[in-house]
Amino acid sequence: MSRIDESLATDRRRFLRAALSGGALLAVGGSFALPRLLAAGAAGGVPALVHTPPGEVLLECYADDGRDLGTCHVQRLVLSDAQWRARLTPLAFDVMRRDGTERAFSGPHERPAQAGLFRCIACATALYDAATEFDSGTGWPSFWRPIAKRNVIESRDAQFGMERIAISCAGCNSHLGHVFNDGPPPTGLRYCMNSVALRFVARTG
Hints:
alpha+beta
């Protein structure tokens, strides 16, 4: 066994011991599954960083009062590893730049008491209207649709033998969570997000 294989095996054993102690299980679609320990392309037992290609992206822009300002062309936020670490908390960095998952019920996940919207904590892209949030019982913020389809990116996630659809922010390519087909009407979808990736902006007036 190579040093890389030994490191990966050690990381998996550590996680399984934590999971069996009840602290690190993910409720996914009504069943429990291991969160993403290592991103695709990981080497040396260290998760690979999320790659963010430079370029312009077309977003749907919203004012803090919820007004749809129409489509806008913005430059995708691209930062160095050091800049991301300075911009984000350690947990947010692990979730958003290493495809990690926060522990269930560890962050704010109940519906806010007032109207507003949720923005990406990294680049401020509008992601979800609070009116579409519901209590899924999973311990993560859950929404039945994004505020605008163009503001999120869907990608295939086949980690740990599961087929899932990962959701990233279109403005900075940061990992947000996953979407499942066990949500409420009218979409039947559950956009299961990490609290540390979101910033709630209350609607005033």
